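Journal club side-thread
Mid-discussion, someone asked how the predicted structure for our own chain would compare to the paper's figures. Pasting it here so we can look after the session.
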Amino acid sequence: MVTGNRTDKRHGDRMDAAGKPGYRKSTAAGRALLILAAAIVLFAAAGCSKKPGGNGTGENPSSAVTPTAGLPDSSNLPEDDGTEPALRPEAQAIYQLQTPAQGDLCAEFVFANYGTIRVRLFSEEARKAVENFKTLAGNGFYDGIKVGRVVDDYMVQAGDREGQGVSGTSIYGGGFEDEISEQLRPLRGALCMANLGRESTNSIQFFFVQTKASVVRSLRAPLDNRFHMTLSQYLSEAYGTELDDEELAYYEVYGGAPWLYGHNTVFGQIYEGYEVLDSLMKVKVTSRLRPNPPVFLETVRLFHYGEK
């Protein structure tokens, strides 16, 4: 069961300092609690919006695997051989994690001194977000911009020219609505729209979810031991998002930020370059979580999978 109603206070997509880089050296339990705290306060970095329940907009159920197809089992995890979970053969049963098909629209992000990330774009499920991104990227808008935010164990955000984490103007002349699909989740490697925490405030900023599955699993123990809450209860009370154990299994197996479900449009998914995403987590950041020295997104190139 998944719904996306949010009743708590919301933040804008310009994020103020809320954590210190040094928390990387915390104990496992303390680290998990700090991640929870960061997720609450740093929701601003990704933005969050209240959504009605249901399937959302732009969904194409006929071409997508249903949410229960290929349901992951977080109680029987495969041996960790260093393979990214989303790139394992069994992940192909999940629509969002499937390798792009011939001709699918994709995007290539080249980060200076770090490497290349390639993403499959979901034009049918997130039509307006993809069209906005495609037009801006095609006009070179994102070439040479600074990465605006890096939040350890959470996300990498970019989109505005100066890397200040401020909103801008979309191709539609203002903000546009969110497109939430039950087929697309803020899993690790998801490319999402940032917003102002209100309806129709998507513009130019985007972010990659970086949270690993081990981090999501580590949240359960401190919630239970210190607050006597389950992860499902926490997400419901803090974000108004109802995720049962079957849905949480996606995040505990493949990683991601379940607190973002129903609040941000997912319009792409990494299929190549997870190691680059993780390397970006190692940058030094300021108290406002901006890379210092700056990290630049050299180019964003659109292409159709399998075509030169």
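Post-session note: The beta strands are 105-111, 115-121, 145-146, 149-151, 155-158, 190-193, 206-209, 266-272, 296-304.
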